# Entry
Amino acid sequence: MENPNKPSHDALLSLANNLRWDLGVNLHDAVIESIYEDASRIARNAVHKEGDPATYTLERRIDQLVTSRWLGFPMMFLMLALVFWLTVAGANVPSGLLANVLVDALHPLLKNAAGSVGMPWWLSGVLIDGAYLSMAWVISVMLPPMAIFFPLFTLLEDLGYLPRVAFNMDSLFRKAGAHGKQALTLSMGFGCNAAGVIAARVIDSPRERLIAIITNNFSLCNGRWPTQILIATIFIGGAAPSYLAGVVSAGAVVGIAVLGIGFSLAVSWALSQTVLKGEASAFSLELPPYRPPRIWQTLYTSLVDRTLFVLWRAVVFAVPAGVVIWLVANLHMGELSLAEHFIYWANPLALVFGLNGVILLAYIIAIPANEIVIPTVLMLTVVSAGMTGEGAGAGVMFELESIEDTAQILQAGGWTLLTGINLMLFSLLHNPCSTTIYTIYKETKSLKWTAVATFLPIVLGLAVCFFVTQFWYLFQGG
Amino acid sequence: MNASHNCENCPVHHRENLIRLGIAMDRVDYVVALAGNPNTGKSTVFNNLTGLRQHTGNWPGKTVVRAEGGFSYREKRYKVVDLPGTYSLLSTSTDEEVARDFILFGRPDVTVIVVDATRLERNLNLTLQILEITDRAVLCLNLMDEARRHRMEVDTRTLSRELGIPVIPAAARQKEGMDELIAAIEEVASGTFVCKPHRTTNRSAKINHAIQVLSEKLAQQFPGLPNLNWVALRLLEGDQSIINAVQSGELGQLETGILQP
# Structure
């Protein structure tokens, strides 16, 4: 729009400029000082404090402990490990029950009903074996661990523990050339990476904000916790003596989460040394008072806002993915199905990285949501291992009565402890889900940085898996 | 709360006057902004007013995008906007700009400033900055439960007199003081309570002179512009977004109300 008053506006601005020169450089400080002076005078007049040093002292004591140089980090890891252990130990039984109802009982019923109304085989295949089963699967695998994990995590958040975590990690981020508030966005990423990327708005400097956005994917998100927990239980816990299994698998999940934090720091450092050079800026972080968590409200919010939200997202994405899975398993080119073509083609390449064709295909199908990786992996394993006796036919996600059954399937599909470890690593280090990628684009408005944030983790993930695999063979061979 | 019998006849306690509208916000009569330092319970107040369940959490900087909801009270419909928590309005981070631009350009009918009663002095810094740019505000003195636990007393009358706006003690987590807050919002929105907001005057004579010279010029070019002194001060400090608003003439649209947030 043409502005007719432009010359007079420019005159106004140059007047402001001249006046600013007269006032000198201390104007900003002087203005802030006068505000602080007023605030302090008003507060002095209005607040009467009898002073109850006891509560303050107790709070300070706790703070000194949880943010102390020596105890801060170990306490953080212990707390995380405890949360995972409770999740792992508590989720197995309800998962089995849900699978019994949704998969064992309801699925045959639906199949029979479809048969009796004369539904064509391919339609009942797509709808019931594809869409319904994948949904049933996602619910029975994911609901119990999430219903335990999220309330526990929300309790910690409500209590006021998260800012202490940020406080502990602040100096590490500063040393990595990133903003201290990145510790907050990182914690947020443990819930959801898309939310963590949006949260990076609290960071003022564009350079540091970009670093926070690119590295947020290294925070293990909701959708990936179930994968980690399940695979750790099967392979890592399975390799340990049974009385230690729970503790060892919880430890492995914490290890992956901590590794993620390590990658966050390392990549931040590398970026701030190279393409995003600059000094870390200072900021103040307020430690809020500890507040007794409101148990019922916490249960409500974490169940409705988080558990059901994530579950709903998983279901929404699982249904079309179930259809795709059924199709790639049932559309044939020559002798083999599309899925088998890809898996056999990708297997030799994937084995170099200690993964397999199934995992690669699963990650391609599961781009919309990390939540469906495990169901897809299991289904494709059955297809490619030709274990048709195991499921109810190609493209049908079979029932799982217990974690041992899952283990049997995976081991029959040629999985080893090494595959398990690499899947956990790759689950940490691969592209963000499509929602997060879209959010990154909206926040950065740059295709270049979106591409960096998308492909950098994949490259890192493949490199890490490659080295782990080669060392593994080296030591086994030697 | 132990209200005496007399209080029951007071409109403040007629809960049936309040209808939470959630996100149904067509035809609003008044716009209410919620501002304040991080982690003072703005989102909890927001949820109490609108009946929505915006996620709340005990950590600063949780709300980065503004959330909107509505309620209806005594036949008037209010839109509530939950702004990101900030420590000041003077720096340039995105969340502070969102908050400042909304109060400045969005011209809410009432700005509710939510403060932490146990950290009043620090919270007043932001309060005073907000009062520089708006004439109609209510102070929600939140977390009174914690203040009581720390045996602190806040003289709300003195505070209200000093700031020139209504001061409502509250404990939003326990839903304490919410009825009184709504009543105060209504009084300010309808003009029953006329605010005389505190304006900082204790600056040096030299600065005050510069502000005066500049705001006279501003008044000539942008007649009807509110917060003249504040805009002048921002220009003196070289605030880029205000400079841009002058250059583009956008600032002039403030008084005509063309500019939509």
Observations:
- Chain B touches chain A through 67 residues (CB under 8 Å).
- Residues 256-261 of chain B have pLDDT under 50 and may be disordered.
- Residues 132 and 246 of chain B are 19 Å apart (CA to CA).
